[in-house]
Every structure is written in structure tokens, then in C-alpha cells.
Amino acid sequence: MKFRFAAHSQCKILEPDPESRKPNPMPATILDGTKIAQDIRSEVAAEVKIMAAAGMRPGLAVVLVGHNPASEIYVRGKVKASEEVGIYSEKLTPPESSTTAELLAVIEDLNRRNDIDGILVQLPLPGQVDSKKILMAVDPAKDVDGFHPVNVGFLSTQRPGLVPCTPAGVLEILKRSNIPIAGREAVVVGRSDIVGKPAAMLMLNANATVTVCHSKTHDLPGVCRRADILVAAIGRAGMITRDFVKPGATVIDVGMNTVTDAAEFNHFFAGNAKREENFRKKGSTLMGDVHPEVAEVAGALTPVPGGVGPLTIAMLMFNTVKAAKMRRGTRVPELSRA
To answer: Which partner for 163 in 29, 110, 168, 288 could form a disulfide, CB atoms 3.0-4.6 Å apart?
Structure first.
């Protein structure tokens, strides 16, 4: 954003230049994550078909403890996606009362099984379970979530390993949409171990200049306005407004927030007839961390839903195949064209 000085009797006050607030002549290009995810699934399915014909069908085990309704929905989606691409999938459902020791025994058994290439522990786990201990127990070679410190280390040192699915999906959206990364300035809003940090590392490895922002960042809008690529992963509905975005920037919205309050809905979506109809029917709507008005400023933008979300499961499928090939000593597939 450009600035101009306003003259006053005793001081000069820095004000936004109105020219920098003007929208793009054309609205942002919408980056279709659903289409990109389907392309990746098709590529994975072709790989699985070849592997299965050679007697090496990849296998994924999902551990779902208890009866968390949201977790059950996520797991159903993962199992269904596995079946669609030809991956063998197995769902284990230990009871809600399971102890840390009992779940460690489950993980150790899966670690030993040669027909299981990927292990996914669905979070959150019950309160009595030491989640970190469970995740650390997963064999790094089967850690298809990419959360194990060994895989984090591989990512930071640019060695072959398993990368967290959502950040990997972010990179695929950029590459498959022909958005340059090398030499560009990227800003990631959010420093979680699951999304923010690995997304920043992936873009750094792709030769972007990367800034990671968080709740203590001074002048957050000003830092974000420097970005050619802005990744929003803060977990607050509509937090990223047009004042955060440089005109023409690419904005990747990782947020997934449920809006149920009518006043909040109207604040974001008043006048959007399709959204209003769906909100009346369901009493809620999904939205990201990016305010809808950003579409007037950005050059390209991922929608919610239909943006980053579908890539998470697609990259889980890819990671399972990658794990199988790395474990069994065959060539690891190239995924993206870039």
C-alpha cells in the first residue's frame, strides 16, 4: 500500500493512499482446489494400479478412538478416498476409554505390519491419552501426516520424507496454477506445526522469501501487504481483509471456520443469494480466514469450501503411495509438473 502525507499545523500523519485501495479491474481468479485434487487422485490411482499389478498394493491404517462426530466424518472421507484410488484401507476403532499404553500397543502392531504403509492417528484423542507420545510412536516411514520430528527434520534439510498434507496441498495449488514461487515474497499468517511452519518451509525450499506472522507480529496488515503470495492459516473467520492484501497478490485461504450467527453471516455475505439460501437451510456456513472482499483486490484466491480442503485428502493418498515406495525400495513418483 502506498502512503501520502496529510499536512497539519504541528505534525504530519501517515495515511493510506486511496489509490492503493482501489480494487483490481478484474475480480480475482478462483483457484479450483477440487479440480486439482481430482487430478492428483487420478495420478495416484494410476500409480496404485501399477503397484497392485506387481503385488505391492499400498495400505493405510486409520486409528479412530471413541466417537467424536467430526472425527468420524473426516475418517469416512479418508477411507472412501482410499477405496476410490485402490489403496487398501483399515479402520481401527479403540474405545473412548483407551489408555496411552493400550494405544501404544496398537501403534506398535501397525508399525510391524508389512501390509500397512501409512498410519494416521485421528486427532483429537481422549483427554486421558498422551497425544504427543502416541504420535511419536508412529514409525516415521509410515507417518503419512508428516508430523513426526524425523519428517520435520527431513523437510527442513530438503531430504526425502513425508510432508504434512495440507501444506503440501498449498504448494500443489500454486505449482499447478502456474503461480511463480521462486524469488517471490511469501507471507504465512499462522505458525502451527501442522500448517504454518511446514508451509513456510516448503515455500522457502522453493526459493521464496518467507515471513511467518503470528499474534505478536507488529503491524500485521502492513507485513501482509508485502506478500506476492499470502497464506492465511490463523483460524479466525474473515480476519484477512482487503487492507492485508497487495493488489494482484495470490491469496491461499487455509481456514475452515463454521459461522452460525446470523449477524456474523450478514456481515460477511449479505447480498450473496446462494449463500443466504444455504444458510437458511442449514443454519451455518463454512468460511475461511479471508474476508470475501479480498476477491476485489487479489489476483488469485482459493475459495472455502473447494480450495485447500480437498487437497488435504488427495495429498494423504499421495503420501501413502510415497511411503509404500520408500519403504519397499521402488522409485518414488513425481507428483507435480513444476
So the answer is: 168
Which residues in the chain are classed under CATH 3.40.50.10860? 58-142
Cα distances from 155 to residues 25, 242, 262, 324, in angstroms, run: 39, 32, 42, 18
3-state SS class at 250: strand
Q: Where in the chain is the domain with CATH 3.40.50.720?
A: 164-310
Residue the block writes with cell 509438473? 337
Catalytic residue among 117, 139, 143, 145: 145
Share of the chain above pLDDT 90, in %: 86
User: What does the pLDDT look like over 269-328, one tens digit per residue?
Assistant: 999 999 999 999 999 999 999 999 999 999 999 999 999 999 999 999 999 999 999 998
- Which CATH number among 3.40.50.620, 3.40.50.10860, 3.40.50.170, 1.10.730.10 corresponds to the domain 58-142? 3.40.50.10860
Catalytic residue chosen out of the listed positions 78, 197, 246, 322? 78
Average pLDDT of 127-148? 96
Q: Three-state DSSP class for 55?
A: coil
Fold classification of 164-310 (topology level) = Rossmann fold (3.40.50)
DSSP SS3 for 304: coil
Model confidence pLDDT, tens digit, residues 88-120: 999 999 999 999 999 999 999 999 999 999 999
Active-site annotation holds for 78? yes
Give me the catalytic one of 122, 142, 322, 325: 122
Active site (annotated) includes residue 145? yes
